Amino acid sequence: METLRLVASYLMMVILAPPIMLGIITKTKAAVAGRKGPPVLQPLYDTIKLLGKGAVYSKTTTWMFRLGPVVSLAAVLAAASLVPLVGAPLIAFNGDAILFAYLFALGRFVTVTAALDTGSSFEGMGASREVAFSSLAEPALILSFASLAYRSGGLSLAQMFAPHGGPSAAASAILALGSLFVVLLAENSRIPIDDPNTHLELTMIHEVMVLDHGGPDLAFILHGAGLKLVLMTSLLVRLILPEMPAVGAVGSLVLGLAAAAVVIGLVESSMARLRLVRVPQLLVAAICAATFGLILTLR
Amino acid sequence: MSPTSRFASIRNGESLDFSKIPVVPIEDFRSAVLKMAAANHRLCALLCSGKDGRPPGSLLAVLADDTGGKLYLAASQPVAGYPSLTPDLTQAHLFEREIYEGSGVLPEGHPWLKPVRRVSADKVAFFQEQGAEVHEVAVGPIHAGIIEPGHFRFQCHGETVHHLEIQLGYQHRGAERLLREGPDRRSLAVAEAICGDTAIGHAWAHCAVREALAGATLSLRAEALRAVVLEVERLANHIGDLGAISNDIGYLPATAYFGRMRGDFLNMLMTVSGNRYGKSMLKLGGVAFDLPAEMRSSMIETIKRSVRHLAEVGDMFFGEPSVISRLEDTGTVSRKICDDLGLVGVCARATGADRDVRQDHPFGLYRFRHIPVIKLDSGDVFARAMVRFLEAQRSLEFLSALIANLSEGSAASPCGAPAANHLAVSLVEGWRGEVCHVAKTGRDGKYEWYKVVDPSFHNWMALAMALRGGEISDFPLCNKSFNLSYAGHDL
Predict the structure, then answer these.
(1) ipTM score assigned to the predicted complex
(2) Chain B residues within 8 A (CB-CB) of chain A?
(3) Is B129 within a domain?
């Protein structure tokens, strides 16, 4: 019974948290711009609408193109089971942090191959950008993980991402946090690295790779992207937000996610997008921050 | 012998008997045009009398002396072909392509004699680079946004653009041919539809040509009301462009605020003329709608509020470091390219050129009331955005002074029939730049020639030059900072 409840609440989080979090970001941006904005649940309505649609496949594509959305969503779902979304993760073992990082890499790999499969010059361009930038985002992620793992003495996400250690550990935690926040923005195609709302193919990074997907495939991709955002944010939230006894583990996480959505919305409203050649500089800065954090931990 | 001796000279918005324009052999025509261009005269229009692809035809050049405020006209004897001007005068490149397409008169030695309109992009050759690491990106003619159709071919090496070729013509509607069938009751409506966002600019240029041919004079009030709507059109578009630039770089608050302010000015045009783009506001001999006192006071209120809001939003937009770093050094056009291509309007002033029809060839009310010319030197997206912002501020000041002291008089006076065998040229500084209409009447007072040059016709090539050596991901932003018209180019 206990397991059933855990799985049920997990499913609720996995299905509902991504659209709501995206909805809160959009609502925040609208509020800053003085607009009303679409309903918070609009991303959920969009997903439901897309799931009800048919899909059109170009004759130049192969099975690889159809595999992309399915595998990338599956990879993110598998990664979700490692993250303590409802107080405890579904699965935890020593070293699951590495699996977590590489499940994301797997999702990216299939998305990129599916994009290349279309043979479109736009999608090829997007794929090349995605790979170039994620090859810089990945070291930042791994280095931050390393310093957190050393500090907590375990290689499991649930252990690494928990608020512990005294003031001496704060500096390295802050550096890891900053680095991970940049990775989060980069991985989830948010401003200032990418613009999730643009319609300009030539400037896109992530969005341009999925231009040829439609219907349920697009629904998978959008939901997968939202879930990725939720997963990375919930790790960061756990790192800084102690569990509040009044609302419980799930309640604190949900509140933390909502707060993080507002923060992301404010970041996106307060600055313009970087020009593409500057993105690597930001990512390298994230790597540096993560490295310093690791040095401080090891000291 | 001074180069001007082969030319007849008029001022903006004047007409002259066509027989007073010197007709010279093509060799003399060519060398005279080149000499004039070397002496800092700008090619406003180059047209050919031939029609429907049947040579021969005679050429007519309109050159502008921006410092002396004069327009110089010369015609050639009819020819079937001539040595192209383009190798010696880059400004002529698109005009000569247009001449070849329209009249069949061959500019021999033109380096890139492709059709300008009327041909679908897949039937013509494009400039192509070869190499293992060079790739080609084709965009359009159908785009992701709600914009006009145009085809862009990039030759890229990685993210760097080596060359961009722009193929337009998808919006060709035969506007010049329809105008040439006039003057009739449709003419003004056709002129307003040449380019939907410059309805007032083109309508004014058309009316000015027609009034010059008829020798009509306007009341001061009519001139003032035309200037009012032209500046409101400028405000709506400049502010709308700032919002669009802000949207392209993902700075959303400014997008929303600029977008709302654009609405204020479109609504102002709606109140005055019953159309958000000011269509049907102008009519021959003046304007169709007067400005009653209560409308004036509400406009003054809106303007006062906009002065304040524009300053606030401008501070927010131009004060944001990430915005500045995104705009600066993106899509730079040098002053030399500006002069070579004969750029006009905002794009020219952003490279430091002191070029504004309202100052150089004043027309209508601008002969009596002056508006400062804004120019910046850097030639990048930042300069083009800043010129728009500063011009919008000057327009607001101009409008509040003008509306508060509107002279009395009738809003329209009669305009007679056009004189036979006359030619008239009118230049109007639309919000995008110089709008040029040239018309020549035949013996029956009907048009024989009617030529329209939208500012976009001069400026499209500058967009391609701005991209050279730049990043392909900067293209949408550059494109937005030029914001050229497809319809105005395609006619």
Answers:
(1) 0.85
(2) 135-139, 144-145, 159, 246, 248-253, 255-257, 260, 320, 322-323, 325-326, 330, 471-477
(3) no
